[in-house]
Amino acid sequence: MNALRNSVRLIGHLGDNPKVRKLDSGKTVANFSIATNEIYYDQSGKKVSETTWHRLVAWGRQAEVVENYLKKGSEIAMEGKLTNRSYEDKNGEKQYISEIVVNSLMMLDKKSEQI
């Protein structure tokens, strides 16, 4: 049996400006989200638009690109890996999160929109 690959490809718009920080280790990390839209017609012929939000995280050089070139509303195409992790919130309760670790991204905005 062939091994399955964990690969996600999305095209969407950033919902907010990326949050970028340097860790104590010196690594740069960027957290941001994108919205993808699906448009279809329901059984009655009515046009329906559904938006899905995806959490993304970029590390190292990718995080620096995100910090320098992307902002709220930027359109990107990206490929990455779906990951799941948990953390304790400020109340000590365990929280679970799914996010996509970005391997590559392409900016799709027109040049004048990227400035």
UniProtKB/TrEMBL annotation:
CDD domains for this protein: SSB_OBF
GO cellular component: nucleoid
Chain segments annotated as coiled-coil in the UniProt record: none
GO terms assigned for molecular function: single-stranded DNA binding
Keyword line: DNA-binding
NCBIfam families: ssb
Protein name per UniProt: Single-stranded DNA-binding protein
Organism: Mariniphaga sediminis
Taxonomic placement: Bacteria, Pseudomonadati, Bacteroidota, Bacteroidia, Marinilabiliales
Gene symbol of the encoding locus: ssb
